Amino acid sequence: MGKENGHKLGKKAYEAALQPLQAELVKLQEWVKQEGLKVVVLFEGRDAAGKGGVIKAITEPLNPRVVRVTALPAPSDRERTQWYFQRYAAHLPAAGEMVLFDRSWYNRAGVERVMGFCSDDEYREFLRACPEFERMLTRAGITLLKYWFSVSDEEQEKRFLDRINTPIKRWKFSPMDLESRSRWAEYSRAKDDMFIYTDTTDSPWFVVEADDKRSARINCISHLLGQIPYQAIEYAPVTLPPIDNQGYERPALAMQTLVPDVAKRLRSKKASQDHEPQGKQAKQAPGKPKTKPARGKGGAGKNTP
């Protein structure tokens, strides 16, 4: 069992639970492809709520030609003149495809509403049109799932600080994240209003408690798998034929421009460690090797201060 950190799911337990879920996701993917299903999954929630992490866990074992992620940037000047749902409709799946929206048309009810990027009339029209738009999708044979990732203000602050102070995560932090902190109550009210109008019987919101990222991923993936009936595909037996390389001679490597083998020193280091006597490795592992001080006359160390 994985070691628990407080009430959060440990890494070992998480990885043990994720592996069979990812195997089921592959089965679902193949079923979607074979049966020509059309699936749309929306991932919404506050900044740093863990949407990207669950999307990565879902897509890691899957074929990006079948299951693709759509994360649209801010609309262009031209797109701002279009029907609001138009640029999202362009990314809807064809038969045999699944699309994961990392944020979606619900930007209008969230960030656009709070930050004043849309007018009151545009906002009210969205609340009226959105349920009907989603009913149109389901009537067109699209399976629509909507997930809201809920995170506390304390946990969001912790994750923001981690992004700010970790070089490889710094790109994730944006000026909009700062605004989300100063407008926490406004975002909360906007989310509550959005749920009133769009948490419908036809297309309900599923809320994922996301203070524990690993638990959130396991819970979300498990739930997703339970929403779409699928079966394991039986593959036909495959026999690999022998390679026919007659009449071909590979050019000398010296005639090609090879990428430098910088990993060579890592392999050499690993090989030297493997051949090192076990006793010697054990003695040197804890810390600095012990050395005897040089002694001068009278037995005192020459370098003694």
Textual characterization of the structure:
Mean pLDDT is 89; it is low at 1-5 and 296-305. This protein has 305 residues and is of the alpha/beta class. It has helices at 11-35, 51-59, 86-89, 111-115, 120-139, 153-165, 175-182, 184-198, 213-227, 264-275, 278-284, and strands at residues 38-45, 67-70, 97-102, 142-150, 205-209. It is built from eleven helices and five strands. Strand 2, helix 3 (86-89) and strand 3 form a beta-alpha-beta unit. Helix 1 runs parallel beside helix 9 (213-227) and helix 2 crosses helix 9 (213-227). The longest helix is centred in the first third of the chain and has 25 residues, at 11-35. A five-stranded parallel β-sheet has the order 2-3-1-4-5, with helices on both faces. It has a domain at 20-227: P-loop containing nucleotide triphosphate hydrolases (Rossmann fold, 3-Layer(aba) Sandwich), CATH 3.40.50.300.
